[in-house]
Design brief:
By secondary structure, the protein is α+β, with helices and mostly antiparallel strands. The chain contains one helix and eight strands.
Length: 133
Amino acid sequence: MNDHLEIIRDYVRANSLSARDERKYQHDKGTKVRKFSPGMLVFLRTPGLSGKLDVSWEGPFEIESVPNAVNVKLKIPGRAGKSRVVHVNNVKEYVQDSTVIHRLVVYAEEPSADIEYNRLAGCNSECAAVSRY
C-alpha cells in the first residue's frame, strides 16, 4: 500500500512541476527585458482619472539610481530634491524624436504654478499650456 502511494505521489509531483514550468513559459513569453541606467530620461505612468482617453504619462523625469532590477528612483524637479521610487512597469524610455503625443508637466517652485504641456514631440511653438490646478 505504501509503495503504491509513493508511486502516485512521485507522479503527482512530476506532473505539478511540469504544469508549473508550462505556466511560467506562457506568462513570460510576451515579456521583454528593459534596462534602465542613471541619467536616462523616462516617462512616468499616472493613473487615468477621466477615463480611457486620458493621457497617462508624465515627464520626462531623470533616473537618479537603479536600486534593483525592478525599481528605479526618479528625480522629481522642483520638489526640494525629493525623489520617488517606482516599479519599472510604470516607466517608459523617453525618445526625443518620437511622434507620439506626450503630456509634459513643468514643476515650478510653488505647486499652484505648475504648468501642464500637451505637445507633439519635436514641436516648439504649437505647444499648448494649461493650468494644472
